[in-house]
Amino acid sequence: MSRYLEAWVGTEVFRMSRDIRPEDVIGVPEDLMPRQMQWGIAAICLRFGVPSFHAWRDAILGYRLGPLASAIVCPVLALIGDREGPEPTAQFEAFIGEVEGPVTPVVFNAEDGASTHVQSDNIRLSAQVTFDWLDQQFG
User: Fold this and answer.
1) d(CA 81, CA 48)
2) N or C: which end of the chain has fewer CB within 10 A?
3) What is the mean pLDDT of residues 101-125?
4) If you average pLDDT over every residue of the chain, what do you get?
5) What's the rounded Cα separation, in Å, for the pair 4 and 60?
6) Beta strands per DSSP E along the chain
7) Residue 100, φ and ψ in degrees, nearest 5
8) Which residues contact 115 (CB under 8 A, 6 or more apart)?
């Protein structure tokens, strides 16, 4: 997960030595730090229950499957958008290659209208694919 997030925020920001707390960036002019990044810092700190960017960066190190991926033997649905970028795509490919159970990989594209991260540009389609897959597995 940390490689993905480093790719998302950029190596320079991800590896910076100065720590950032949400209260440090709220109100910074938009031309210096986009509002989305300000809100993003606040959101990740709140979501992970940490006080700062460095604390969050340390917390996400625990979110790695590593060798545990090969212990997954149940059916798996793996979703990705084709515009998510090289790092998410590499992780998607590695995951579906390492899992021992049957994997149903789904790559959404711009024609589907669901090609971005977590298919946020077409959540209904993503949900439909997920529920159809669940029906196939358990129906």
Assistant:
1) 25
2) C
3) 91
4) 89
5) 11
6) 76-81, 103-108
7) -85, -30
8) 81, 82, 83, 84, 108, 109, 121
Tokens read off for 63: 């979110």
| Amino acid of residue 50 | V
Q: Residue 80 in contact with residue 89, Cβ under 8 Å?
A: yes
The answer to whether residue 52 scores a pLDDT higher than 90 is: yes
Listed in sequence order, the residues at least 6 apart from 99 whose beta carbon sits closer than 8 Å to its beta carbon are: 69, 70, 72, 76
CA gyration radius, the chain: 18
pTM, two decimal places: 0.74
Q: What single letter denotes the amino acid at residue 61?
A: L
Q: What residues pair up with 79 in beta bridges, in sequence order?
A: 106
CA 56/CA 79 separation, integer angstroms: 25
Residue 78 has pLDDT above 70, yes or no: yes
Does the pLDDT at position 1 exceed 60? no
Distance CA 39, CA 1 (A): 20
